[in-house]
Amino acid sequence: MAQSIPSELWGTWAVRRDLPARTISCWNEAQARAIFGTKIVYRDDSFRWKDRITKHPTVDVSVITANQFQEDNSGHGSNSSQVNFDQLGIKTPPVRQITIDHPGVRSDLPEEPDEIPGDVVLLKDRDTIIFSVCNVYFEAKRVGP
To answer: What average pLDDT is seen over the chain?
Structure first.
């Protein structure tokens, strides 16, 4: 069911590090590092990363189990991406997944994604979220209300 961005996500989050998931990414290390230190800001009716802002997005909140997550985000071959909650440091599944649907965005800079980081997040705990861009998983910490 569509709703506004949940209050536990409101605030400013700083991207701190990437997580050691066994995935096949379309990014190189320099592209992934460019996201470190950037901030994602969530409000009840918008979210922003750098100069990209989405107002009044459609939001879906679901609960996802460890098995669901692995099935949805891993390939089925031995050479496919394999990602699970253990790799992401999630010890207390199931977790809430928040999906923010927004119009597509394009960047004129080749080192930046054509998506908005943080549009699908896992709430690891009160002050930590996990998201992926180009199949690279990142952790962000709350830095402000």
So the answer is: 85
Element (H, E) at 47: strand 46-49
pLDDT of residue 78: 67
Of 62, 64, 69, whose CA–CA distance to 2 is shortest?
62
- Cβ–Cβ under 8 Å, residues 76 and 55: no
| Overall CATH class of domain 7-144 | mainly beta
Amino acid identity, position 68: Q
Residues 6+ apart with CB under 8 A from 110: none
Phi–psi pair at 10, nearest 5 degrees: -60, 140
Question: 130 pairs with which residues across the strands?
Answer: 122, 139
SS (H, E, C) 58-114: EEEEEEECHHHHHHHHCCCCCCCCECCHHHHCCCCCCEEEEEEECCCCCCCCCCCCC
Q: Which residue has the higher pLDDT, 22 or 123?
A: 123
Q: Residue 13 pLDDT more than 70?
A: yes
